[in-house]
Amino acid sequence: MGSLTGRNFSVMTFGESHGPALGVVIDGLPAGLPISEEDIQRDLDRRRPGRSPYASPRREEDRAEILSGTSQGLTNGAPLAILVRNRDARPADYEDLKTAFRPGHADWTFFRKYGLAPQSGGGRSSGRETLSRVAAGAVARALLAPLGVTVRAASLAIGPVSAQRRDWAFAEANPLRFLDPDLAPLAEETVAGAMAKGDSVGSAVEFLAQGLPAGWGDPVFDKLEASLGRAFFSIGAVRAVEFGDGLAISRMRGSEANDPIGPDGPLSDAHGGVLGGISTGRPLTARLFVKPTPSITVPQLTTDTLGRPVELSVAGRHDPCLAPRLAPVAEAMGLLTLADCFLQGPSRLDRLGDVWR
Predict the structure, then answer these.
(1) In whole angstroms, what is the distance from residue 105 CA to residue 97 CA?
(2) Which residues of the chain form beta strands (DSSP E)?
(3) How far is residue 122 from each of residues 56, 126, 183, 305, measured CA to CA in Å?
(4) What would the DSSP string read from start to end of 304-336?
(5) Strand 64-68, strand 70-71: pairing
(6) What span, in angstroms and rounded, lies between the C-alpha atoms of 284 and 100?
(7) Weakest mean pLDDT among 23-32, 57-66, 119-128, 271-280
(8) Is the dihedral of CA 74, 76, 77, 80 positive or negative?
(9) How big is the CA angle at 96 (ends 90 and 102), to the nearest 5 degrees?
(10) β-bridge mates for residue 70, sequence order
(11) Which residue in 19, 114, 198, 301 has its CB near the most CB atoms, within 10 A?
């Protein structure tokens, strides 16, 4: 399975939704970075279930344990291992799903590839796997913070309700992590209506990175938006990604789409902070489009492992809308990608020596 990502900031996640624990091993960290379990916990708490009426009621503390890679509160150059133990798994909720494939989930494709019958809680394909990414993202955040690089994400759209303005402080306190205070009640009404019918709603997440210097990313195959796109698409529920003006730029003329350039770089940001696959120094913006939660109690047609037709209603504890808890995961995947770029170092000989001074 593809559980390893990154060349310089190398991350490997492990664990399953209903296993004893999940975790991550990070390699490539320089020695001397201050990092603590509390630093990691702040980001894990933002993703943690059971914190709002619009999140899975699964009760997990998601307490981070640093097992290796630090000495006296500083990274020591060795692999950093972080563990989070599962405390509230309920395999009994999946007893009726042992042989039936849940529509919209990875059950059927895992069965075809690995010969595995549907696993309790979704196993490795569960959204719970993303807590390992968020733990690693917290470390990447600490690495990038001294450079002035900040990353955040929030819900831009909940079903048909799209934010018309962006209030990031409001979003962080809102149970749906929705950006528009004026439309938040309508967004909550939309989710509540779907929940009442045993259904779910799709959503969109906006990602914003600021303070990024010009020059990160590489041309051709390792363009910055290509690396970020790969990271974002690795989140199971993400079905589309756009940067800058995204799809709208395909309807523009060149005179409208081109960002004028001044002495310090582009003066506008239609391209979302990236040109030629390299950061411009402008804010880096992306939007992730997220499918509705596939676990719903509405009866659905499927088959079992013997190919027999089954009508299935999925019980258990699930998020009716994924964006609020997916936003911290989007932040994490962006942070991992940017940390990998940072640790690559300069690509100019006249600046390469500065690394060793």
Answers:
(1) 12
(2) 4-5, 10-15, 21-27, 64-68, 70-71, 74-75, 80-85, 150-158, 161-162, 203-210, 238-243, 261-262, 265-266, 274-275, 278-279, 284-290, 300-303, 309-312
(3) 15, 5, 34, 15
(4) BTTS-EEEE---S---SBSHHHHHHHHHHHHHH
(5) unpaired
(6) 42
(7) 119-128
(8) negative
(9) 95
(10) 75
(11) 19
The CATH label, of 1.20.1440.230, 3.60.150.10, 3.40.109.10, 3.30.360.10, for the domain at 4-356 is 3.60.150.10
pLDDT tens for residues 290-312? 999 998 989 999 999 999 999 98
Structure tokens of 267? 């003066």
Residue 197, CB half-sphere, CA atoms under 13 Å: how many?
Answer: 8
| Stretch (H or E) spanning 189 | helix 184-196
Range scoring the smallest mean pLDDT among 114-123, 155-164, 231-240, 272-281: 114-123
Q: What is the pLDDT of residue 94?
A: 63
- Reported as a single tens digit per residue, the pLDDT across 19-51 is 899 999 999 999 999 999 999 999 999 998 877
244-266: b (≥16 Cβ within 10 Å) or e: bbbeeeeeeeeeebebeeeeeeb
Q: Is 112 helix (H, G, I), strand (E, B) or coil?
A: helix
The tokens describing 67, both together, are 């097992």
Q: Taking the domains of the chain in order of start, what are their residue ranges? A: 4-356
Calculate mean pLDDT across residues 99-122.
86
- Give the containing element (helix H, strand E) for 43: helix 37-47
Q: Which helix (H) or strand (E) holds 74?
A: strand 74-75
Q: What does the pLDDT average to over 322-334? A: 97
By C-alpha distance, which of 20, 19, 22, 26 is closest to 4?
26
Read off the tokens for 96.
């009726």
pTM check: above 0.85: yes
Percent of the chain surpassing pLDDT 90: 75
- pLDDT(357) > 70: no
